[in-house]
UniProtKB/TrEMBL annotation:
Transferase listed as a keyword: yes
Matching InterPro entries: Aminotrans_V_dom, PyrdxlP-dep_Trfase, PyrdxlP-dep_Trfase_major, PyrdxlP-dep_Trfase_small
GO molecular function: transaminase activity
Stored Gene3D superfamilies: Aspartate Aminotransferase, domain 1, Type I PLP-dependent aspartate aminotransferase-like (Major domain)
Domain Aminotransferase class V: 26-403
Entry protein name: Aminotransferase class V-fold PLP-dependent enzyme
Pfam families: Aminotran_5
The entry's keywords: Aminotransferase, Pyridoxal phosphate, Transferase
Organism lineage string: Bacteria, Pseudomonadati, Pseudomonadota, Alphaproteobacteria, Rhodobacterales
Keyword Hydrolase on entry: no
Length: 411
């Protein structure tokens, strides 16, 4: 496998040519990534030339609808699912909220249980927990309080009586960052008669998922964290999507990608999401030439390029942090088993430390990042929060080195 050409990658992001961002290294990518040029170009073109109601019988409208359809079709193909199994919504939190309402109606009056974790971001935890008000049993799959790890043996015990109908868990946590064994968990749930809902928000920026290989019934992530516009993307497999009561307009109930999206889509942003596919294809072509490959194979190849680069940059940072005795490094110490989202608990409030880092040209964040449950379970002082240092494949070794120098100064 070739090494990622970071110079080519950065040439695809206007942010790296911005005078306003010059001399600053971006380490809060878990909160939202820079936007790829093809996305910006498509969004600009839509607002200039296509900003009309789509699917009407005139040219501008037909072109607008075609671009929206292109985004859905290409991203679905890259993840190995049918085009109507991919839905757009205003955010992942909104998509999860709507989905949970469908599950509420589906399980109403049944003796059923849902498994949630305390490793999750609140968006894939709180909405499910509130279903307890409807008489649905909520079972918590708990993390190890020292490491943040989710033990699959513990999940087996929660599934044993056959009452569980849905298992909700993260591909990786936005503070623990350990990459969970999604395929194994989904297989366990399926064998027990349960569907699965995977929060991929913190993983998808490091490579879009191969849905058939992983096996979830729902996979959710955010386009604005994966180099695109501010949209939530939901892969909802047909069997589960059609089993749930429709949440959209009654006349859209027969269309799977409209069935669980009650709000009208943001036409321009949906169309711009095709730029995410443009970017993945550009990376594939640059590194692998024009050799024929399916959209899923191209996506998987780019995923591996991204992850290989990130792992090589991440290990020195983990080693540096693990060697310090004035902080607690959250999550695994080996880069291969985690995403490059690194949270550390300090002996002081984290947010002012992030502000100090900004004086050294390092953009990072401090707080709880809506991960109140996992941080609390890990015994982190929520008043202090954690310092979070997160990067993606466009980050360079020089920037990681600058981060370590900055940490030396402020810690």
């Amino acid at each position: 496998m070739p090494e990622l050409d970071v110079d080519f990658v950065r040439s695809q992001f206007p942010a790296f040519a911005s005078a306003a961002l010059k001399g600053q290294a971006f380490f809060e990518n878990a909160g939202g990534s820079y936007t790829a040029k093809p996305v910006i170009d498509r969004l600009t073109r839509f607002y200039h030339d296509r900003k009309v109601q789509p699917y009407a019988p005139y040219q501008a409208s037909q072109l607008a609808g075609a671009e929206m359809d292109e985004a859905r079709a290409r991203l679905a193909a890259m993840m190995g699912v049918a085009r109507d199994e991919l839905s757009f919504g205003p955010s992942t939190s909104a998509n999860t909220f709507v989905l949970a309402n469908g599950v509420r109606l589906w399980l109403k009056g049944k003796k059923a249980a849902i498994v949630v974790t305390n490793q999750d971001h609140e968006a894939n935890s709180g909405v499910w927990r509130r279903l307890a008000d409807e008489g649905i049993e909520i079972r918590e799959w708990q993390i190890d309080p020292e490491t943040g790890h989710l033990d699959t043996e513990a999940l087996g015990l929660l599934l044993a009586d056959g009452k569980v109908k849905l298992v909700c868990f993260p591909h990786c946590s936005n503070v623990v960052a350990e990459v969970n064994p999604v395929a194994e968990i989904c297989a366990m749930a399926k064998a027990a008669g349960a569907y699965t809902c995977v929060d991929g928000v913190s993983y998808a920026p490091h490579g879009l998922p191969d849905i058939p290989a992983l096996g979830p019934d729902v996979y959710l992530f955010s386009a604005y964290k994966t180099y695109g516009p501010h949209q939530g993307i939901m892969v909802l497999r047909r069997k589960f999507g059609e089993a749930l009561p429709a949440q959209g307009h009654y006349f859209n109930a027969e269309t799977l990608y409209k069935r669980h999206t009650p709000a009208g889509p943001d036409h321009a942003q949906v169309a711009a999401c095709a730029g995410m596919a443009d970017y993945i294809d550009a990376l594939y072509a640059h590194h692998h030439g024009l050799s024929p490959a399916t959209p899923l194979a191209r996506n998987n190849a780019v995923h591996d390029l991204m992850r290989d680069h990130e792992v090589r940059l991440l290990q020195p940072l983990l080693d540096y942090l693990a060697a310090r005795n004035d902080l607690r490094l959250i999550g695994p110490r080996r880069a291969e088993g985690r995403a490059p989202t690194v949270a550390v608990a300090l002996d002081r409030v984290a947010e002012p430390v992030a502000a100090e880092l900004a004086q050294h040209g390092i953009m990072a964040g401090g707080g709880d990042f809506y991960a109140v449950r996992p941080l609390g379970a890990l015994g982190v002082d929520l008043g202090r929060g954690v310092l979070r240092l997160s990067f993606v494949h466009y980050t360079t070794k020089a920037e990681v080195d600058a981060l370590i120098r900055g940490l030396d100064q402020v810690l």
